[in-house]
Design brief:
Elements lengths: L5 E7 L3 H13 L6 E8 L5 H8 L4 E5 L5 H9 L6 E6 L2 E3 L3 H11 L3 E9 L9 E2 L4 H8 L9 H4 L13 E3 L1 E2 L3 E5 H7 L11 H11 L3 E12 L9 H20 L1 H28 L5 H18 L12
Parallel strand pairs: 1-2, 1-4, 2-3, 6-11
Antiparallel strand pairs: 4-10, 5-11, 6-10, 7-9, 8-11
Helix pairs in contact: 1-2, 5-10, 9-10, 9-11, 10-11
């Protein structure tokens, strides 16, 4: 049996129309060589499973009865892969012409590369910061204290900051977003599957670190482009999404940096939600409660703070990064 060149794994949760657009873009701009597409559905309730079965008969569909989480969903979709390359792709991605070819060509030309990622373009035309340095407590603190919003983003990474949004040549990085990860199968076999202890978020950061620890390089390939709608399956669960990010960051820091950093991160997750809650409360008072957006933000960050404090709450949807 001829070995496939590429397996594409898409984890989906309640993003039927985004998933349809993703699969249509793959059919319109197919990878070179032999490939297959695997969709792992995390117990969607929006007709995603029926849509794939009826509209994309060539796609291999794994319909889980339970929401497995993003890491476990990808592990299931890649478990029996024998392709040269595995591509983890969000369901809210639309592939542009030539993207697959450029990514695979780069990997073929760089045998020491274990993983590479495409340039992700947002619906407004801006370039997503989808790659860069490793996650640190310093970065998380700057984010939670809104220093990045105050024009002090340099505090996040200092001298190690990598601005991939302006890169015009392939760039070696420490992190690639789980929205698009083209992985050498040999590297995946060495590194092992994603850590399923992460429900959603930071499983990609953790995996990237483990790739690097095994000696594999990670690269951002800017001439390979995709449209990223960004967070399609988590828009209706925004508080759960933010709380999941806070908890996953604390878990990542505990594993790789120790308990003290994890404890500080847990505290800062609550502080960050509280800071935003106070700012939006002030805005609500200033507008006499007449602005609906202000009231909704107050409710959002109150719930975020609670969910960050109480991890036994129902986890957020798991489908997109």
């Amino acid at each position: 049996m001829t070995r496939l060149d590429l397996r594409i794994c898409i984890v989906n949760y309640n993003t039927r129309e985004l998933l349809r657009a993703c699969l249509e873009s793959i059919e319109a701009n197919p990878p070179p060589g032999d490939y297959e597409v695997v969709v792992v559905d995390n117990a969607s309730r929006d007709g995603s499973v029926e849509m794939v079965r009826e509209g994309f008969p060539r796609v291999r569909l794994i319909a889980s009865e339970d929401n497995l989480g993003y890491a476990a969903g990808n592990n299931l979709g890649l478990a029996d892969s024998d392709a040269r390359y595995d591509l983890i792709l969000n369901s809210d991605i639309e592939v542009h012409e030539g993207c697959f070819e450029r990514l695979i060509r780069f990997m073929d030309a760089h045998p020491d590369a274990g993983m590479c990622g495409a340039r992700l373009i947002l619906p407004d035309g801006c370039i997503q910061s989808s790659a860069g340095p490793d996650l640190t407590l310093r970065q998380f603190l700057a984010q939670q204290l809104l220093l990045d919003r105050a024009g002090m983003g340099w505090i996040s990474h200092g001298a190690s900051r990598v601005d991939v949004t302006s890169a015009d040549v392939p760039t070696q990085v420490q992190f690639l977003t789980g929205a698009c990860m083209l992985c050498r199968r040999e590297a995946v076999d060495q590194v092992g599957p994603m850590d399923e202890g992460y429900w959603m978020y930071c499983e990609d950061t953790d995996w990237c670190r483990r790739f690097r620890e095994r000696g594999w390089k990670l690269h951002y390939v800017p001439d390979a482009t995709m449209l990223h709608v960004l967070g399609g399956s988590s828009r209706e669960a925004r508080a759960e999404m933010i709380a999941a990010w806070n908890r996953s960051t604390a878990r990542y820091l505990r594993i790789h940096q120790g308990g003290l950093q994890a404890a500080l991160a847990r505290c800062m997750g609550v502080v960050g939600a509280g800071l935003r809650l106070l700012l939006w409360l002030a805005a609500t008072v200033a507008t006499l409660g007449l602005v609906g957006r202000c009231r909704r933000r107050v409710a959002l960050f109150a719930r975020t703070a609670w969910l960050t404090l109480v991890p036994r709450q129902i986890p957020p949807p798991a489908g997109n990064q």
